[in-house]
Automatic annotation (TrEMBL):
Pfam families: HEAT_2. Coiled coil: none annotated. It comes from Myceligenerans pegani. This is HEAT repeat domain-containing protein. SMART domains: EZ_HEAT.
Length: 536
């Protein structure tokens, strides 16, 4: 036993004894077996307050295991009572509250951890609530944050008391956000009171709370935000994930169809005496990447500040200064290109390799699936016999049936893409392809294959579903599907697609930095060309 561990209070020692007695092999965390949870919890307690980096390391280790990238696990739920008791006993109190708050905030639950972790934290609110009155402001702030993440209206009185009575502006700010999260009966009053608060942190919290409550963007909200001299610095002191406050607000406005309001906010923000122009320029880049209306309004603004520090990403995004070119839409590789050296195999060797069944799911990999489909397509090209493709696509889709996740969705799309090569002969796969219409990732390729095969299906419905997810998955599949379906669409469906193509929100919101705007317009041009077939 270390010297630090020997000085633990009886209350803390009792919690750790219960931790040791718990069957951690019955639960799991991000790295699998949770049998190391006792050692991690003990390290958290022992290292808390240590002047070395060991304290932060133990928090990081535990964080990575039970709230890994925002995902919670069965071990996360199991840890809640121990973390709550440790916090109440004064052992790593702030760190335990951090963990409890972020776990309660999570809506991403790993398979096997279906129990609501928010309910688990809520069940220990009576243990945590007194910590909102702790002598240490950092602990009070963490406690208020954790209580707010429970979304429990029963905690509203305690949160209101923290907002009204605490001398620490950051605690009051956390309380404003927490009150709205817990269902404040008068959100308008909570937000208005925050806007009138003399503390910058509380006014900024009022802006966040206004968005959390779904309230409209108003002049008062804009003024509250612009009145805060350094919103990003203040946001970084809150236990929240909105550390880039101005950029976050801009994202919310653009994503809700208010790109013009976002541009107006930024232009006005840059004129404020206390403005950090680099922060404004960064947020302007975000606005242009998400809204076409914001882009046009901010273009003169970008020209005005083209030589300012921090303007490079914005000016490259708008094409005002040289920058990277957007990557072209992918071109579907030929079967021989996909096979590489195996393209030189003779027909009989290809048949022999295709006859080998796919391995069981536990040993199935994407290269194995890709090779199976590419071999089948290459054999069809050499023999005009569709049977190998029909067999391979059927085998792949059967093996991946009910398997979830992007990885296997893209493999199902690959199977549909392979089937589409057959044209009318893909009709033999009609039932398989119809089932693939239920997979959003495979939807476009399956629709292309069905249309080329001459199968009867609700083309307008499928086109509408493609429009609703355009830009989310492989853009070339969507473009190919739209070009294939365009001559079959009703005038109403064509108009719906035209409206989608000309919408304000960007399709392309990821990829190579500095190219989002150009890549988005490139994708729109491809969609316009594809839809032109409707008028042919």
């Amino acid at each position: 036993m270390s010297q630090q561990e020997a000085t633990l209070s009886p209350a803390v020692a009792a919690v750790l004894a219960d931790v040791d007695a718990f069957d951690w092999t019955a639960v799991s965390h991000a790295y699998g077996d949770a049998s190391d949870m006792p050692s991690m919890l003990r390290a958290l307690v022992v290292d808390a307050g240590d002047d070395s980096d060991s304290g932060s390391e133990s928090v990081s280790d535990l964080w990575g295991a039970i709230v890994h990238q925002g995902t919670v696990y069965s071990a996360s739920t199991a840890s809640v009572p121990f973390l709550a008791r440790l916090a109440a006993a004064g052992a790593a109190t702030r760190e335990c509250l951090w963990l409890l708050g972020w776990m309660a905030a999570s809506d991403d639950t790993a398979p096997g951890a279906e129990d609501d972790i928010r309910n688990a934290v809520r069940a220990h609110a009576d243990v945590l609530e007194p910590l909102a009155s702790h002598d240490d402001g950092e602990i009070r702030k963490a406690a208020v944050h954790a209580l707010g993440q429970t979304r429990s209206i029963d905690l509203f009185p305690a949160l209101r008391a923290a907002r009204d009575d605490d001398e620490d502006a950051l605690v009051r700010a956390e309380a404003v956000i927490a009150m709205v999260r817990c269902g404040a009966p008068d959100t308008a009053g909570v937000v208005a009171a925050a806007y009138a608060d003399p503390a910058d942190a509380v006014r900024l919290a009022g802006v966040f709370a206004s968005f959390d409550a779904g309230r409209p963007w108003t002049r008062e909200t804009k003024e509250a935000l612009l009145s805060v001299p350094d919103p990003d610095s203040i946001a970084g002191q809150l236990l929240d994930d909105r550390h880039e406050a101005l950029a976050w607000v801009v994202e919310q406005l653009c994503d809700s169809g208010h790109g013009e309001a976002a541009a107006s906010l930024l232009i006005e923000a840059a004129e404020r005496e206390h403005a950090d122009l680099a922060v404004v320029l960064y947020a302007a880049t975000i606005a242009c990447e998400r809204s076409r209306a914001a882009t046009e309004l901010l273009r003169p603004f970008a020209v005005k500040h083209v030589d300012a520090e921090g303007a490079r990403m914005l000016t490259q995004t708008l094409g005002l200064t040289p920058g990277p070119e957007p990557l072209p839409l992918p071109v579907q590789a030929t079967p021989d290109q996909l096979l590489g050296d195996d393209a030189n195999l003779d027909v009989e060797e290809m048949r022999t390799r295709l006859a080998v069944p796919l391995p069981e799911y536990a040993r199935l990999t994407t290269p194995v699936v890709d090779k199976k489909l590419a071999l089948a397509a290459a054999l069809w090209e050499r023999t005009d016999d569709p049977a190998p493709v029909v067999a391979a696509v059927t085998e792949v889709t059967d093996r991946l049936a009910e398997r979830e996740g992007f990885l296997w969705g893209y493999q199902r799309a690959n199977a549909a893409r392979t089937a589409a090569r057959l044209g009318v002969e893909a009709a033999a796969l009609e039932l398989v392809l119809r089932a693939l219409l239920d997979d959003p990732i495979a939807l476009a390729a399956a629709a292309t294959a069905l249309a080329r095969a001459g199968c009867d299906f609700d083309v307008d419905n499928v086109a509408d579903r493609l429009a609703a997810q355009a830009g989310q998955y492989r853009g070339d599949d969507t473009v190919t599907a739209l070009a294939t379906l365009a001559p079959l669409l009703s005038p109403a469906a064509v108009q719906r697609w035209r409206n989608v193509i000309e919408r304000d929100a960007r399709f392309v919101t990821g990829g190579q930095l500095g190219t989002f705007v150009a890549a988005d317009e490139q994708f729109r041009d491809a969609l316009r060309d594809a839809l032109a077939g409707a008028d042919a």
